[in-house]
Amino acid sequence: MTARPGLVTAADLALLESLARERSVVAASRRVGISRDRAVYRLSRLRRAFGGPVVVGARGGRRFGGSWLTPLGDRIVREGFDSVELLRARPLARPSRPNLLTGVFRRDPAAAVVVAPGLALRVPFAAEDAEPVAVRLDPESILVARGRFPSSARNVLPAVVEAVRPGPGAHGRTVVARVGPLRLRASVTDETVAELRLTPRARVFLYVKATALRRAGPPATPTRGSPRRRARTPPPPRAGSASR
Questions:
Q1: Which of 14, 120, 135, 136 could form a disulfide with 98 if both were Cys (CB 3.0 to 4.6 A apart)?
Q2: Residue 130: inside a domain, yes or no?
Q3: pLDDT single digits (tens) 40-87
Q4: Which pTM value belongs to this model?
Q5: Over the stretch 147-206, which tens digit does the pLDDT of each residue have?
Q6: Who contacts 164 (Cβ-Cβ below 8 Å, separation ≥6)?
């Protein structure tokens, strides 16, 4: 067996699980809080990653249209990504560099990390109150919208677009948006850029589910007990040796 592809995320599994219930890309994408274009983009990535389609669709006719998981897609949902051989898979584009944020953990009124004055992000993990923590946020997990709408996302962040740059995929873009004093990168499709008219200074909302924020380890810094510092410290004199 090969290892799970680095670009396949929990959001992809949630999309497949929703498709198994909804049998509609539109309904499934709405359930997981992403656009239809983003759902189609992610399904295409899964097809390339696993060397075959994970969803098939039909239009109209006796079945009135819809989308269904293929045996491959069903196996991924039931047994996980690591259960599938990737011998026929084509390499995907390089992954997006995650957003790395640092802040202070707060327990009340809900688990959150304060990353800037007045800006707290709901998170799925626990820590000591007032403990410094770092979190990673995958640009693929951020939904960009021009207005507010009902969503299960715990974090809805007003932002201003600073730049739209080429993304890691052939048909993807990276939106750089400012949220207060912070800059966040979000991965979107070409269609999303055109439909939402994402240009510099455009005002948008970033929808981020709490489960998309993963705790990251603190950056390594030399400490008094670090191997580097211990290497510079001479060993203590042996017992009974004369000091000069």
A1: 136
A2: no
A3: 888 888 887 777 788 887 654 444 458 888 888 887 777 766 555 543
A4: 0.59
A5: 888 777 889 999 999 999 987 665 678 999 999 999 999 988 787 888 889 999 999 999
A6: 173, 174, 175, 176, 193, 198, 199, 200
As a whole number of angstroms, the distance between CA 238 and CA 49 comes to 60
Q: Report if residue 159 sits inside a domain.
A: yes
User: Encoding tokens for residue 227?
Assistant: 């191997």
Domain tally, the chain: 2
User: What's the DSSP call for residue 110?
Assistant: S
* Neighbouring residues of 42: CB distance < 8 A, sequence distance ≥ 6: 11, 12, 15, 34, 140
CA distance 122 to 208: 9
Q: Which of 1, 14, 6 is CA-nearest to residue 143?
A: 14
Record the tokens describing residue 147, joined without a space.
Answer: 């207005």
Q: What's the CATH number where 163 sits? A: 2.40.50.100
What are the contacts of 118-123 at 24+ separation with CB within 8 A? 118/180, 119/157, 119/179, 119/180, 119/182, 121/155, 121/208, 121/210, 121/213, 122/154, 122/155, 122/210, 122/213, 123/210, 123/213, 123/215
Of 94, 132, 157, 130, give the one whose Cα is nearest residue 219: 132
Cβ–Cβ < 8 Å for 217, 62: no
Would the CA dihedral through 153, 157, 212, 10 be positive or negative? positive
Q: What residues contact residue 50 under an 8 Å CB cut-off, 6+ apart? A: 5, 72, 76, 84, 86, 89
What radius of gyration, in Å, describes the C-alpha atoms of the chain? 23
Structural domain includes residue 235? no
Supply the range of the domain harboring residue 151: 135-216
